[in-house]
Amino acid sequence: METLDTVRAEALDAVGAAADLDALEQVRVRELGKKGRLTLLLKSLGGLDAEARKAAGQALNVAKEALAAAIEARKGELARTALESRLAGEKLDITLPVRPEMRGSIHPISQTIDEVIAIFGEMGFTVAEGPDIEDDWHNFTALNIPPEHPARQEMDTFYLPGTRDGHRLVLRTHTSPVQIRTMCRQPPPLRIIAPGRTYRCDSDATHSPMFHQVEGLVIDETTHMGHLKGCLIEFLRAYFAIDDLPVRFRPSHFPFTEPSAEVDIGCSRTRGSLKIGHGSDWLEILGCGMVNPKVLKACGIDAERYQGFAFGVGLERITMLKHGIPDLRTFFESDLRWLRHYGFSALDVPSLAFGLAP
Ligand code: 2U9
C-alpha cells in the first residue's frame, strides 16, 4: 500500500504541474474524490488498532486539508494567468469608427396629433378619448344621422357581431361619439378635441379602411359662428406655419351641425405641383358648423341655453399636404425607409413657443 508521504508528495507535485483548471480538477478527483487515493487511505484505517488509527487519521486529515488548500491556491493562480493572457491578446482600437446607432422616429401621424394638441391646447382645449368599438346610438343616432342615412349603410360601416344596450356595435366612423359621450357625462361649458383612429369600409389610393381624425367641440352660453371662424383660422395658420394663409368658409350640410360649412385654404396649382398659402386656387381642408340643437338634446343638454361649434379634420390629409407625402397608403405600410425619411425625432416635441416642427 502507498504511504501517506508518497501520496501527499505526488499529489502536491501534480497540483503544481496542473496546466489549466481541467487538469487541476482531474488531480482533485484522483486524490480527494470518492475513490481518490487519500480517501481510500482513510478508509483503510479500519484495520489498525485504536491508538495507531487515531494518529494515522490525524495525519491523513492534515494532508487532505493541505492538499485542498494547495488546489484552491493553484486555482487562483490559473485563473489569474488565464485573465492576464486574455487581456494581453485583446486589443481595443479606439481609432475605429463608432457603430451606427439605429434610432426610432415618430410617425408623421403621431407628430401631427401632437402638433394639433399643442395648437388647441394653447386655446384652452383639452383632449378627450373614447372607445374604437362604438354602438350605433353614440356613432349615429345621437348625431342626428337616421337609420336610412347613407353613412349608416353596411358598405361604409364596419358592423361587429353583437349589441350593447340593444344597439348594434360598429367600428367608429368618426371621433364624434367621443364628444357625445363627453356631453352625456359632463355639463357645459366644454372645450375639447378628440383625436384618434376611425374606420370606414373603403380602400383605394385616397381612402384607407383605418384613418385618423381630430374633431373639436365647444359648448357654452355665448359661443357663436364668429368664434368658430376665428378658432379655425388660427388653427390652420399655426399648423401650416403661414401667418397670412387665406381661409374661406363655404356653406355646406352635415346632419350634426346647423348651419354647416366647409373650409378651404388658398393654394396654387402649377404643372401638377401644389403650393399652400398663395395663388388663386382653393383646397378643401375641413368641415365645421354650429352644433345642431337636436344633438345637444340627445345628450340631455338644454338647447335653449347652450350652443357651440364643432369641426372635423382628416389627419392623413393635412399631414400629406404639410410634408408633401404623395400616397396615403404609405402611412400604414410600416416601411422603415419611409419612416426614416418622413419620421420625426422623439426629442422635437411640438410646442407653439419653440416651433411645431424642426
Ligand atoms: C358633435 C357634434 C358635431 C364634427 C364635424 C365635420 C363637420 C367634417 C370631416 C372632415 C374630414 C370628416 O375626416 S373627414 O372626412 N368632418 O366635415 N365634422 S362638423 O361635428 C360634430 C361632432 C360631434 C357632438
TrEMBL record:
Keyword terms of this UniProt record: Aminoacyl-tRNA synthetase, ATP-binding, Cytoplasm, Ligase, Magnesium, Metal-binding, Nucleotide-binding, Protein biosynthesis
Subcellular location: Cytoplasm
Annotated residues for binding of Mg(2+): 258
Main localisation: cytoplasm
Domain Aminoacyl-transfer RNA synthetases class-II family profile: 119-358
Reaction(s) catalysed (UniProt annotation): tRNA(Phe) + L-phenylalanine + ATP = L-phenylalanyl-tRNA(Phe) + AMP + diphosphate + H(+)
Record Pfam families: Phe_tRNA-synt_N, tRNA-synt_2d
Gene Ontology biological process terms in this record: phenylalanyl-tRNA aminoacylation
EC numbers for this chain: 6.1.1.20
Cross-referenced Gene3D superfamilies: Bira Bifunctional Protein, Domain 2
Keyword Ligase: yes
SUPFAM superfamilies: Class II aaRS and biotin synthetases, tRNA-binding arm
Names of the cofactor(s): Mg(2+)
InterPro entries: aa-tRNA-synth_II, aa-tRNA-synth_II/BPL/LPL, Phe-tRNA-synth_IIc_asu, Phe-tRNA_ligase_II_N, Phe_tRNA_ligase_alpha1_bac, Phenylalanyl-tRNA_Synthase, tRNA-bd_arm
GO cellular component, one term: cytoplasm
GO molecular function, one term: phenylalanine-tRNA ligase activity
Enzyme class: ligase
Cofactor stoichiometry and binding remark: Binds 2 magnesium ions per tetramer.
Summary of subunit composition and partner proteins: Tetramer of two alpha and two beta subunits.
Protein family: Belongs to the class-II aminoacyl-tRNA synthetase family. Phe-tRNA synthetase alpha subunit type 1 subfamily.
Name of the protein in its database record: Phenylalanine--tRNA ligase alpha subunit
Species of the source: Candidatus Defluviicoccus seviourii
